[in-house]
Amino acid sequence: MMFIGRHFTSAVGSKWHMDETYIKLRGQWMYLYRAIDSTGDTVGFGNHEYR
User: Fold this and answer.
1) Which end of the chain has fewer CB atoms within 10 angstroms, the N or the C?
2) pTM more than 0.70
3) Range of the domain at 40
4) Quick check: 45 and 37 in contact, CB under 8 A?
């Protein structure tokens, strides 16, 4: 998976999970992925045409 951006507010804890959804971006359906830590902060995100 390729992350196109990262946003760090603090050090990432030992627990995190991936959130996945399917969105239409520029007229094309794509998967949007987010890495979320235990406090609910977004650690990283990215989009990909294929799952």
Assistant:
1) C
2) no
3) 16-48
4) no
For the residues of 7-26, what is the DSSP string, one character each? --SS---S-EEEEEEEEEET
Question: Would 6 be classed as within a structural domain?
Answer: no
- Count of domains observed in the chain: 1
Model confidence over 1-51: pLDDT tens digits? Answer: 455 555 555 566 678 888 888 999 889 999 989 888 888 888 888 887 877
Which residues are CB-contacts of 28 (< 8 A; sequence separation ≥ 6)? Answer: 49
- Report the alpha-carbon distance of residue 47 to residue 49 in Å, rounded: 7
